[in-house]
Design a protein that fits this description.
Number of strands: 8
CATH architecture: Alpha-Beta Barrel
Bound molecules: D-xylitol-5-phosphate, zinc ion
CATH topology: TIM Barrel
Largest sheet: 8 strands, parallel
CATH class: Alpha Beta
Radius of gyration: 16 Å
Order of helices and strands: EHEHEHEHEEHEHEHH
Number of domains: 1
Oligomer: single chain
């Protein structure tokens, strides 16, 4: 996978039909999704439980492109190999999930995946300053993690600061939470290139009638691309 900073839309299957993940992944990919964003929650790091590595392994054959797994779990390290075995391309851990984020990111790379680090809304960019050389992605949360469909928390200054910190490094800035055609331009202008969107993509479509997914993805992509920094 070569690095490029054009706008990528990553639908979050947290907003998809949980009884039909395979078909939902195939449908959003066919409708223009760049990556598939997979939210893993443990009911401990965040106040909600979604699913784990077994589900990731089950959906992997239904994804042609990038499987972007966002871990909202603590601890992370005991489960890294399970997500590698499940076929995750990108594995993102929260900087708040434990005292040894550097070790965790090294272990993700060593297991053959691309490491990402995520920041909660209340965490400053300085928390990831010392790991920018060992990650492929920084995920800036624009909601408090745990649920889809929450109200967007504006964070343009934080994103722009992170963009400056990253400089020439080949590191994606991913935004997660409340992304839609209205919030996307400000995020792209601040320096984001990967936009996760759950409810804004999956509303108005189904796996058997997915054209609404395509309309939604295009609306977010076009709004962001026109504003990208
Ligand atoms: C939140 C998850 C998000 C979520 C986004 O904890 O990490 O990926 O699914 O959903 P929307 O786009 O509906 O805010
Ligand atoms: Zn997520």
């Amino acid at each position: 996978m070569s690095f490029e900073r054009s706008i990528k839309i990553a639908p979050s299957i947290l907003a998809a039909d949980f009884a039909n993940f395979g078909a939902e992944c195939a449908a959003v990919e066919a409708q223009g999704a760049d990556w598939i964003h997979v939210d893993v929650m443990d009911g401990h790091f965040v106040p909600n439980i979604s699913f784990g590595p077994t589900t990731c392994a089950a959906i992997r054959p239904h994804i042609k492109g990038v499987m972007d797994v966002h871990l909202m779990i603590s601890p992370v390290d005991p489960y890294i190999q399970a997500f590698a075995d499940a076929g995750a391309d990108i594995l993102t851990a929260h900087v708040e999930a434990g005292p040894h984020i550097h070790r965790t990111l090294q272990a993700i790379r060593a297991a053959g995946m691309r490491p990402g680090v995520a920041l909660n809304p209340g965490t400053p960019t300085s928390a990831v300053a010392e790991v920018l050389d060992i990650v492929d992605l920084v995920c800036v949360m624009t909601v408090n993690p745990g649920f889809g469909g929450q109200k967007f928390i504006p964070m343009a200054a934080k994103i722009a600061e992170l963009r400056d910190m990253i400089g020439d490094r080949e590191v994606h800035i991913e935004i997660d939470g409340g992304v839609d055609p209205n919030t996307a331009p400000g995020l792209a202008a601040a320096g984001a290139d990967v936009l996760v969107a759950g409810s804004a993509v999956f509303k108005g479509g189904t796996a058997t009638d997915p054209s609404g997914y395509g309309t939604n993805i295009t609306a977010i992509r076009d709004a962001a691309t026109a504003a990208q920094r």
